[in-house]
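Let us practice reading a record.
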Amino acid sequence: MNGSTFFEWFVRILPLLKDNAVIIMDNASYHSVKKDPAPVRSSKKQDIINWLESKGEFVTQPIAKAVLMERVKKIKSEHEKYVIDEYAKENNKIVLRLTPYHCELNPIELTWSSIKHYVRTHNNTFKIKEVKELLKQGVEHVTPQHQTHPT
């Protein structure tokens, strides 16, 4: 999965949702492609200047690259927009992003955790055929009551 593939899928799915639908999004990299990424330390100095000026910042020269990056750091959160979020907004939908590192808020993470726990605790041959069967059994053991990590 990558940002382009996810965006193509998202564009096809979005019309199926009602206006003002809230879409819960985790922080997978392909969900978090930035619309206008801020420059990084390895960016060319002129690219940093161009980005700052595109955000209404006046840059006097000569100026050190480190000073430019400090200015980027100060304003980048104001200009941080995600491709998915903006597309959803343009189509009367709302993206709500989960807090990073809180997998308990994401049901799919809890489901995978349960399945992996099942396979780990029942696997004694380590043969791919048996692991595939354990995977199927692990999926069958998942219920709506799996709301916390089994470990």
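A brief commentary: The chain is about 50% helix and 5% strand.
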